[in-house]
Amino acid sequence: MAKLDSKVAVVTGASKGIGAAIAKALARDGAKVVVNYASSKAGADAVVAAIAAAGGQAIAVQGDVSRAAEAQALIEAAVGQFGRLDILVNNSGVYEFAPIEEVTEEHYHRLFDINVLGVLLTTRAAAQHLGEGGSIVNISSAATRVHMPTTVAYTATKGALNAITGVLANELAPRRIRVNGVSPGLVVTEGTHTAGVIGSEMEAGLVAQTPLGRAGQPDDIAGVVAFLASDDARWVTGEDIVASGGVR
């Protein structure tokens, strides 16, 4: 019996990168998975097809988590399709850098609306359905520890997310719902390619500072999330696991 058999999971922002790897990992462990996407239907459908080909169950559901009605509809789609909800992985996020001179209201609101408000709205909707043994995993970032230049707004959103994890771990503990975070270091994804990090001096510098000597891969993060989602982590809540190859 797989450790997530009979469980139902929602993974936001799961059409590519870390989110896609998490969705596949949860499905391999037996969960039925809702693959959320904002705009990349083709990417989400590909993740669902990969899960189905491996013998798992998944559906793709479109929704902008920064909009309350769409976040609510995402959770309702999961419960409507699979009858319950056990796991929420808040992975949706904008990975966008700018030096302080170029920080605008639009840049700030884009990052905070998705990276912070989206987590609150989706968790609010999920909390109506999660029961004892439920698990919420928030995907943060090791950027909150290394304080890289040009990441001020992005890092601020992830610092806020760490605070949210701690508060909700205490708030939901009486209902026996666990809330944890995972803070990836540099991971090779579509997002880090688009941001110009992969192949840059920034990547070379970060890898040089990484004790394990390489950039991360999405599966490196997915395994940590699968652990936190499972009963193997039944005594773990309010924690932020830094999955960075040793970068501190």
From TrEMBL:
Top-level taxon: Bacteria
Domain Ketoreductase: 7-185
UniProt keyword annotation of Nucleotide-binding present: no
Pfam families per UniProt: adh_short_C2
SUPFAM superfamilies named among the record's database cross-references: NAD(P)-binding Rossmann-fold domains
Family: Belongs to the short-chain dehydrogenases/reductases (SDR) family.
Name of the protein: 3-oxoacyl-[acyl-carrier-protein] reductase FabG
